[in-house]
Write a structure and sequence with these properties.
Oligomer: single chain
Largest sheet: none
Radius of gyration: 31 Å
Number of helices: 6
Number of strands: 0
Shape: rod-shaped
């Protein structure tokens, strides 16, 4: 007795169709995410980002009266701000480093 290949072929065609529909849906969703991401990148303005060497944002954060910088932020500001900006923030930096082991080090560095 010979079995007919017709049911096997029908099953193969149906299975191939299901996988094709699934692949199209997955690809379509991925393409939509890529398009949305590309639109965000295209629309976002690059002019508002500060330059890497511009530390005025850090000086502004240190001088902001509504926040108190942590000792880590004060030490970072003392080590990275150029002297012209560090001198404007000196009181706030030293206040954030009060009673830490870095207070004297920063005082010496900023005094020079």
């Amino acid at each position: 007795m010979t079995l007919s290949n017709r049911p096997l072929r029908l099953f193969t065609v149906i299975l191939l169709a299901v996988f094709s529909i699934f692949a199209v849906r997955v690809h379509s969703q991925a393409a939509q995410r890529e398009t949305a991401h590309a639109a965000i990148i295209t629309v976002t303005s690059e002019t508002s980002k500060p330059a890497l060497e511009d530390f005025s944002w850090l000086a502004g954060m240190i001088q902001d009266a509504s926040t108190t910088p942590t000792a880590a932020q004060g030490y970072l500001a003392a080590c990275t701000l150029p002297p012209s900006l560090a001198s404007q923030c000196l009181d706030t930096i030293l206040h954030s480093l009060h009673s830490t082991r870095f207070e004297e080090e920063v005082k010496r560095e900023l005094a020079e």
